[in-house]
Amino acid sequence: MLTNLLEYEFLRNTFLTGIIIGIIAPLLGAFVVVRRLSLIADALSHVTLAGIAFGLLLEKKTGAMLITPFYSGLGFSIIGSVIVERLRRVYTAFQELAIPIILSGGVGLSVIFISMANGFNTDLYNYLFGSVSAVSRHDLYSIIIIAIIVCTVIFLLYKELFLLSFDEEQAVVTGIHAKRIHFVFIVLTALVIAASIRIVGVLLVSALMTLPVAASIRIAKGFKQTIIYAIIYGETAVILGLVSGYYLEIPPGGTIVMLLILLLITTIVTKRVIENLKSRKHRLKTG
Amino acid sequence: MSKPIVEMKNVSFHYGDRQALSDVNFIINEGDFIGLVGPNGGGKTTLIKLLLGMEKQTNGTIQLFGQPIHKFKEKNKLSYVSQKANTFNRGFPATVEEVVTMGLTAKLGYFRRLSRQHKKRIYEAVEKVGMTGYLSENIGELSGGQQQRIFIARALVSNPQLIILDEPTVGVDAENVEKFFELLHELNKQNITLLLITHDIGTMTHHASRVACLNKTLHFHGNPNEFQTLSKDQLSDFYGHPLNLVTHEH
Ligand SMILES: Nc1ncnc2c1ncn2[C@@H]1O[C@H](COP(=O)(O)OP(=O)(O)OP(=O)(O)O)[C@@H](O)[C@H]1O
Ligand SMILES: [Mg+2]
């Protein structure tokens, strides 16, 4: 594979993208999970699908590449994030209602665009489940820019985002612009989803944001550690998943997510076993 | 001469058309330790929300540190330990150090990061509440009373002049309530002004310098000894009135 990696540009692009999203997806995912917004990632990814379908439709009807599906997906994802925010404010007591509304809207639109473009094709299949050969050089540049934006914003607003996640009331009292920061956060989520979709696919992108965090939360002390372990889990799964997906000719979305689940189960079981051993040791000492 | 930190004049507040506060006049002077008591729904939390700028009064004026509240920007002069501090998500992965660090958010401002001085202040605040050994523990793994102490440390770390606490001793056992009040007393001696909402009248009257009773309006505002000499009848009158009997005031 290494020789292929050097030989084929598309493979290099895929791997670089994989390494980048292996960092930014769990990084943002840590905030998403502790704010209990895991499902928003799902809702936004389905809106992104609608955008991608729209881009494919345009491509087909006009023949020109005015906006590639990547950008139309990105655009829809950002619009979706704005609507989520609006809806959350309308239903302050039932904020999770925003999720099924956006999610079903995304799927509905996708179905319409897809059938207008005369149905399913390989391209769409790749967008749903990810692909090892779908990242163009142009996409890679956009993804690098997205990664720079995400990392810079999180670096600069870390303490505000953290406070907002832990204690929204205190954040407001402190005088930080909670609404604006929250808005920035949702847009970042939309960006990360758009960047990840080429590799893991629409249906599994939220898994890449949440599963590494689910595993790392079991063992981490504190939030910074949670982020670091989540990135390690995410990166491991992405790299191994891409390699195995390539050899087994399975879309990498499937292999990456199954690896993440495996890591999660291993972590939970190992922690159990270690705790049991510890308490048995303790019992032996005292008993 | 101590100067007033908080001045409320003829303040009233409505949630929609339900009146929560009516014609409240309330002064907190520098160095006070005020215990605010009153029945459930009496408007205590509401009064605090006004002071913190989370709600705006319907009528009347509020001054903080000599400035009208809408002009007051130095948020780091006051800290708040909320009634919800003990209902936060216990699974949240945050260490004690990370939680206390949050208290510096307002002081630091946007884009600024912790310096070594700040780190020192964090350790000092944690030491003050006697939790030094726990810096790298997850907050969710501490007991309720220990968590309360950490939230006090978070309130202390920005070096505020006024700390507002909304029922911080709920769910804390009697012995720890006593210790908790001693801690507050200690802070008060270091010239930190305290406004404490509590239902723990007995313990509070031993430590507070003044007591205020709120049931929509301020019924009593004076020193704890006088408060204790209020007859049982007067107190139960004040507490026992169903709220709807008092609503026709506006
Ligand atoms: N968000 C809200 N919307 C509408 N009404 C509210 C709201 N919050 C409080 N109220 C009403 O305002 C009144 C005062 O409530 P508040 O929470 O200030 O009481 P409290 O003195 O803090 O009570 P407790 O001892 O139970 O904490 C109550 O009648 C309550 O029903
Ligand atoms: Mg209250």
From TrEMBL, chain A:
It is a multi-pass membrane protein. Keywords: Membrane, Transmembrane, Transmembrane helix, Transport. The chain crosses the membrane at residues 15-34, 39-58, 64-85, 97-120, 140-158, 179-197, 203-220, 227-248, 254-274. InterPro entries: ABC_BtuC-like, ABC_TroCD. One of its GO terms (cellular component) is ATP-binding cassette (ABC) transporter complex. It is found in: Cell membrane; Membrane. GO terms for biological process: response to zinc ion; transmembrane transport. Belongs to the ABC-3 integral membrane protein family. This is Zinc transport system permease protein.
Automatic annotation (TrEMBL), chain B:
Keywords: ATP-binding, Nucleotide-binding, Transport. It comes from the Bacteria. Residues 6-240 form the ABC transporter domain. It comes from Gracilibacillus orientalis. Gene3D superfamilies: P-loop containing nucleotide triphosphate hydrolases (3.40.50.300). PROSITE patterns: ABC_TRANSPORTER_1 (PS00211), ABC_TRANSPORTER_2 (PS50893). SUPFAM superfamilies: P-loop containing nucleoside triphosphate hydrolases. PANTHER family: METAL TRANSPORT SYSTEM ATP-BINDING PROTEIN TM_0124-RELATED. Transmembrane segments: none annotated. This is Zinc transport system ATP-binding protein. Belongs to the ABC transporter superfamily. GO terms for molecular function: ATP binding; ATP hydrolysis activity. It holds the Pfam family ABC_tran.
